Amino acid sequence: MAQKKFAIIGLGYFGMNLATFLSKEGAEVLVIDIDPNRVDMISEEVTHAVCMDSTDERALKSLGLKEMDAVVVAIGEKFESSITTTALLQEIGVKKIYNRVISPIHERLLNLMGVDELLVPEAEAAGHLASRLMLAGILSSFELAEDYGIFEIPAPPAFVGKTLMETNLRQLYNLNLVTLKRQKKRGGLRTLGKQDKLMVLGVPSPDLSIIEGDIMVIFGKEKDLKYLLEQ
């Protein structure tokens, strides 16, 4: 399988973390920023780090961005630079362009340019937090559609000691269990002070018993999950 290649333009908090995560996943990552201090901070974490103005047409065209699987414009200060950079990437013929949106006007302009891969990390983070605040007991959530999502919750006390079949999760709550996460066994005194690691149990069988501390990864509607948590 060919190594994925990505370019991240703009090394704010979002761009910096995205580049680091992609690099750790084994991708070839090129980062670009006008601030030399930001470039220096991440230069050892990625494949290539370039200090330049991304609105410089000649410089941008010299980087081989057309060969990238995707380019993410993560500029988060002045949307004028983001718009100009995006226009140049379109002219170069970049396969896939993702843009971080920083304002409603910025979003409208990107839509007019035909850019449909828009990123609003602040809004997504706010949505996840809202779900966690509104649903007491939820650990994390991922919205798949307006009504459906994937949720992580601690196994309810009433489920502990029961098999998955005995919980009647689908019949009683209209929810589906995707998998279970379970704490790995401690190794004695050597693990004191360290956070327990979780292992994913894959596709659980109906006769698997739930134990205290398990985390259930559930697919379904938020209203059905709320009903389960209120029991």
Describe the structure.
The chain has 231 residues and is of the alpha/beta class. It has two domains: 115 residues, NAD(P)-binding Rossmann-like Domain (Rossmann fold, 3-Layer(aba) Sandwich); 107 residues, Regulator of K+ conductance, C-terminal domain (Alpha-Beta Plaits, 2-Layer Sandwich), CATH 3.30.70. It has a six-stranded parallel sheet, with helices on both faces. A five-stranded antiparallel sheet has the order 7-8-11-9-10. Helix 4 links the parallel strand 4 and strand 5. The longest helix has 14 residues. About 3% of the residues have low confidence.
Low-confidence stretches: 188-195
Question: What is the makeup of the main sheet?
Answer: 6 strands, parallel
Task: Classify the helix fraction into a percent range.
Answer: 25-40%
Strand order of the largest sheet: 3-2-1-4-5-6
Return the average pLDDT rounded to an integer.
86
Brief overview:
The chain has a six-stranded parallel beta sheet, sandwiched between helices. A five-stranded antiparallel beta sheet has the order 7-8-11-9-10.
What is the strand and helix layout of this fold?
Layout: E1 5-9, H1 13-24, E2 28-33, H2 36-42, E3 48-51, H3 57-61, E4 70-73, H4 79-92, E5 97-100, H5 104-112, E6 118-119, H6 121-134, E7 140-143, E8 148-154, H7 164-167, H8 169-173, E9 176-183, E10 198-200, E11 215-221, H9 222-230
Parallel strand pairs: 1-2, 1-4, 2-3, 4-5, 5-6
Antiparallel strand pairs: 7-8, 8-11, 9-10, 9-11
Q: Can you give keywords for this protein?
A:
single chain, 231 residues, alpha/beta, Rossmann fold, Alpha-Beta Plaits, six-stranded parallel beta sheet, five-stranded antiparallel beta sheet, 9 helices, 34% helix, elongated
